[in-house]
Amino acid sequence: MKTQPAERHKHIRARGYIGSSALGISDGLLTNLVFLSGFAGAISDIQLIRLAGIASMLAGAVSMSFAGFLAQRSEYDLYHADAKREAGEIEQEPEEEKSELKNFYTAKGLSQDEAEKIVEKISTNKAKFLEDILMHELHVHETKLENPIKMGGVIGLSFLVGALIPLTPFILLPTKNSSILAAALISPLFLFGVGVWRGRIVGRKFWRSGLETLIIGVAASAVLYLIGTALVFV
Prior knowledge:
mainly alpha, elongated, 8 helices
């Protein structure tokens, strides 16, 4: 008799890092594209535009790195604060915590007797009891927390990559007009691609997410370019 192979489910690892990298790339691309569009509309010196674009890219990457680190660090602090509070409640009011957990299981369709047996079994292990309370009552779990340093690095590096896309034509090409034209042709393709990627990650229709990101980026760049051009005549 042949044994059936165990069913294997593929899970997306480091989901938080993937989503954050998509966000960082799109933010970097949009931010520097809009900045360069406005700056190029007001300034004719290509060297000055390059330096400003590089400064904007580096400043944004550093800022996003620290923001990503602080945001994830806050998630850690909040989780441990919740865990400490719930652990205290388990010590002081164990029956009330058991009752809350039983209510969760009965709401899922278990009978009172089944729920009571499960909760009594879980409550014999304080670590598992706390884990169940945090997961079912507060919807948090330690495994969902990402490393703050890695998260900051991923977001900062992704922003850097995204910001480099519209900046590259200004670095490689000799004139402002040719750089603007190249950026105007290249950036929308990347904007659409990043939008498609983000859409696939969050489960949205890829073409809708791609068009949304493209339209927002192009519209913002056009508005800033017109404003920058108008400032020349002020």
